[in-house]
Amino acid sequence: MPLPTFNDSSLLLRALTHRSYINEHAGAGEDNERLEFLGDAVLDFLSGSYLYRRFPELDEGGLTRMRAALVNTEGLAALAIEIDLGQHLRLGKGEDDSGGRKRSTLLCDGFEAVMGAYYLDSGLEAVRQYVEPLFDTSSRVVIVGETDVDAKSGFQEWAQAERGQTPHYAQLAVSGPDHNREYTVEVLVGEESFGTGSGPNKQAATQSAARAALRRTLGQA
Hints:
mainly alpha; Ribonuclease iii, N-terminal Endonuclease Domain, Chain A; Double Stranded RNA Binding Domain; 3-stranded antiparallel β-sheet; 10 helices
């Protein structure tokens, strides 16, 4: 799925601009943090509206849990991966070299910023039409999680059944200070990459990558 089409391309450019890029390029304009703030509010509302209509059987508690899973850092990073957002981000060299294009927090922030910019550019209904197909896939992955299926085990079952192979996981990067590490892991079946994920330790990053892979397979179903 491509990035949304903007009437004002400067808004999209700002949404893709991380503060690390501004720090290294004098006069490059404004970073995306204000747009990130706006996008967070827009996505919070749209995800709630979507879930209310999509799952009439859920009570308030169920809707709250589902919304939290859709728009948390990991959930929005997965949506960013679906639209290949990482390759479009404007990052400083250090951030880029350290694996920033695959870092969950950075992808989440970038996705929020793009949605905030798209809201300013084209209005709430345009954002709704863009994100709801993404929510369709995400909500199915959340439901899998709600049934307590371990993502790594779930993806292994799929890979063995559909590809006759067991997935393997490769560590791509470790970033951050010692007290706040972030690991980035990629899951592959054979030579094909099915997803990446990040977390504060290897186990969490592996589960995140497996969830991204499950999301991809569900999207293909």
